[in-house]
């Protein structure tokens, strides 16, 4: 085989390996990336059904319902314009309270119930996840714009 053909084979093999590596990395990222949606976006149908994503906002006052064993909890996450019903099984963070900021990760069922696999509560009085704060501001602007 001529040296030129050998070089070309090595170049093609290298391109194939780089292509394979890029494909594997993109598939891994796709499986682990979770997008954030506000309750208004979920209500508008922008969030995927059956796929994992995050919803953030405030825990609606008076919406927390606990099971007898205390491990199953249902509550509403709101951006003050719309709300999403959330169901979670497990221990909640100590800072989880009504009227406080929260981000939940999980999947939305066809019934509209969001089954959470993770609940993240704010860690001090001044912090709210940037996505949740932005969603609350946008919902407040949209609410004011209505007649």
Automatic annotation (TrEMBL):
Membrane protein topology class: Single-pass type II membrane protein
Extracellular side: 29-147
Highest taxon of the lineage: Bacteria
Phylogenetic placement of the source organism: Bacteria, Pseudomonadati, Pseudomonadota, Betaproteobacteria, Burkholderiales
Protein family per UniProt: Belongs to the CcmE/CycJ family.
Keyword 4Fe-4S set for record: no
Species, as recorded: Comamonas avium
Gene3D superfamilies listed in its UniProt record: Nucleic acid-binding proteins
Binding residues annotated for heme, in chain numbering: 123, 127
Stated name of the protein: Cytochrome c-type biogenesis protein CcmE
Intervals, Cytoplasmic compartment: 1-7
Classification via InterPro entries: CcmE (IPR004329), CcmE-like_sf (IPR036127), NA-bd_OB-fold (IPR012340)
Major localisation: membrane
Entry keyword set: Cell membrane, Cytochrome c-type biogenesis, Heme, Iron, Membrane, Metal-binding, Signal-anchor, Transmembrane, Transmembrane helix
HAMAP family for the chain: CcmE (MF_01959)
Record's subcellular location: Cell membrane; Membrane
Keyword Amino-acid biosynthesis: no
């Amino acid at each position: 085989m001529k040296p030129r053909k050998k070089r070309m084979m090595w170049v093609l093999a290298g391109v194939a390996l780089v292509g394979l590596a890029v494909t594997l990395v993109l598939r891994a990222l796709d499986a682990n990336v979770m997008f954030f949606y506000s309750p208004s976006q979920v209500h508008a149908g922008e969030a995927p059904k059956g796929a994992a994503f995050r919803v953030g906002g405030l825990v609606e006052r008076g919406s927390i319902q606990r099971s007898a064993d205390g491990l199953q909890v249902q509550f509403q996450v709101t951006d003050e314009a719309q709300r999403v019903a959330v169901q979670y099984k497990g221990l909640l963070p100590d800072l989880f309270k009504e009227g406080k900021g929260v981000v939940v990760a999980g999947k939305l069922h066809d019934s509209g119930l969001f089954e959470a696999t993770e609940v993240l509560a704010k860690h001090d009085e001044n912090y709210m996840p940037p996505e949740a704060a932005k969603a609350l501001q946008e919902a407040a602007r949209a609410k004011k714009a209505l007649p």
